[in-house]
Design goal:
35% of the residues lie in helices and 24% in strands. The protein is α+β, with helices and mostly antiparallel strands. Helix 10 packs antiparallel against helix 11. The longest helix is centred in the middle third of the chain and has 26 residues. Among the domains are: 57 residues; 115 residues, Uridine Diphospho-n-acetylenolpyruvylglucosamine Reductase, domain 3, CATH 3.30.465.10; 132 residues, no CATH class. The structure holds flavin-adenine dinucleotide (FAD). Flavin-adenine dinucleotide binds next to strand 4, helix 3 and strand 11.
């Protein structure tokens, strides 16, 4: 590859050189080369951030060749992996070992180091983001020296687990997992107002809760995931002779389960049908409200599934679109969604993708959106269409107004002065960064935007 383009296609860069090191010695050589050239260095994982976090015009490294599982500690349910391992490969390996991640986001294409660098999260008020599951990591600093960092390192640990790639190259990570488990997914469609009213009740009763709302409709989908010992199935979950026969046929003929098959159907629908609907709406924005109503009818259907945890947490890959997401105080979320709905109507904006509501437990990571408070992660998503910029700007202003903090892997435009106001440990992180990387070897436009106040 001669250039880099992120998943959404919005951010591109032309690095001076691109490397795929096999080991730490090769990474150290790239850093030495960048230092000698007077250029910057950066790592790209899967390139799935909507922000320009992984862009550089200096030396770009990708750690896909550093994807080994180094150690499995069954007693502690911990794994140590090389930083380039993709979450999807980790999930398979964990399943083989009788382990699983306690929580995951919607996809597992990301690299382990890339996912933790931006605070990637799933949903569940009793679960922190993936960075909080890190028990140790190894950081190669600008001078090529490596340092193993654990909770004994205090503030450095709080910074390095969610570091935006600003402190050095993460080469290995130890993650806390748990014994393998199955999840039961309950998906129920309902009017948005009912869903918003009932949110506190569900949050008390389910381990993982999320809500989708499709603008221009009054329909919301409520999702709950809970651990279960019941066997894998799709549908009402009661089995029955037809379903049993189908399961046996799928397993015997094609080595597939119903859950696998359903994921493939979802994948096809997203890739072909949903993508075509989005493109039609982009050409004719006046159709978007109608198309949303159609999608809500076809897609927002009640269902129950039971399956391996990662397969239930993860969704089929969505069509290309853009995302902005803010961590806001939990109690602010219902009001914000009502205000957003009113604003979309008032300004007659045409919004073609869901609003997503997820939850993350409070943590103490310096740059985490959930720092010091339980967080509702509120996401405004949209595929390219004329009102995208206005929609994101309005959404961001509303979130900042209630003390929102951006998801670093998604789009945000808040200036560094705003970020400084809402992130109590931003200054502390900047000081630590100055200490670890005084020559700003790992700097890029993304970090300059965030730390503009810090010189
Ligand atoms: C379709 C889709 C669905 C998504 N779903 C979710 C979701 O459910 N929840 C959620 O929270 N987010 C989600 N995201 C966002 C995604 O999880 C984050 O943006 C994540 O950071 C991407 O991981 P990556 O490996 O692609 O990292 P990249 O985007 O390649 O890089 C992200 C940052 O990590 C740094 N980095 C990467 N590797 C290293 C390393 N070894 N050492 C130091 N720094 C490093 C990069 O320099 C960069 O700053 C989704 C993204 C997409 C495209």
């Amino acid at each position: 590859m001669s250039g880099f383009v992120n998943w959404s296609g919005v951010h591109r860069c032309r690095p001076a050189a691109i490397h795929q090191p096999h080991d730490e010695a090769q990474i150290a050589r790239v850093l030495a080369q960048a230092n000698a050239d007077g250029l910057r260095a950066k790592v790209v994982g899967a390139g799935h951030s909507w922000s320009e976090a992984a862009c550089t015009d200096g030396h770009l490294m990708n750690l896909d060749r550093m994807d080994a599982v180094l150690d499995v500690d069954h007693e502690r349910a911990q794994v140590t992996v090389e930083a380039g391992l993709r979450l999807k490969d980790l999930n398979e390996r964990l399943a083989d070992e009788g382990l699983g991640m306690s929580n995951l986001g919607s996809i597992s294409e990301q690299s382990v180091a890339g996912a933790i660098a931006t605070g990637t999260h799933g949903t569940g008020l009793r679960f922190g983001n993936l960075s909080t599951m890190v028990r140790a990591l190894r950081l190669m600093r600008a001078d090529g020296q490596v340092q193993d960092i654990t909770q004994d390192d205090g503030p450095l640990f709080d910074a390095a687990r969610l570091s935006l790639g600003a402190l050095g190259v993460v080469t290995r990570v130890t993650l806390q997992c748990e014994r393998a488990f199955r999840l039961r997914e309950l998906a129920v469609g309902m009017p948005l107002d009912d869903a918003l009213e009932q949110l506190p009740y569900w949050l008390d009763r389910h381990e993982h809760v999320k809500l989708w709302w499709l603008p221009h409709t009054d329909r919301a989908m409520f999702y709950a995931f809970d651990r279960t010992d019941l066997p894998e199935t799709v549908g009402p979950g009661t089995g029955g002779p037809l379903r049993d026969a189908l399961e046996v046929a799928l397993a015997q003929r094609w080595g597939r389960t119903e859950v696998d098959l359903m994921a493939e159907v979802d994948h096809w629908v997203n890739e072909h049908l949903f993508d075509a609907v989005l493109k039609a709406g982009a050409r004719q924005p006046r159709l978007i409200a109608l198309l949303n109503a159609l999608i809500a009818r076809l897609y927002f259907i009640d269902r129950q599934r039971i399956g391996r945890s990662d397969r239930i947490f993860n969704l089929a890959m969505p069509p290309v679109h853009r995302e902005m997401e803010y961590g806001v105080p939990v109690e602010e979320a219902p009001g914000l969604i009502r205000d957003l709905r009113a604003l979309i109507e008032r300004q007659a904006m045409a919004v073609n993708f869901i609003v997503e509501v997820r939850y993350v437990a409070a943590d103490n990571l310096m740059l985490s959106p959930a720092y010091g408070r339980d967080s509702c992660q509120l996401g405004a998503y949209m595929a390219q269409a004329p009102d995208l910029d206005a929609y994101f700007a309005a959404f961001e202003a509303m979130c900042l107004n209630v003390g929102g903090r951006p998801h670093w892997g998604k789009e945000f435009r808040a200036p560094s002065s705003e970020l400084k106001r809402h992130l109590p440990r931003l200054d502390e992180f900047a000081a630590l960064r100055q200490h670890l990387d005084p020559g700003k070897l790992f700097d890029n436009g993304f970090l300059r935007r965030i730390f503009a106040q810090h010189g």
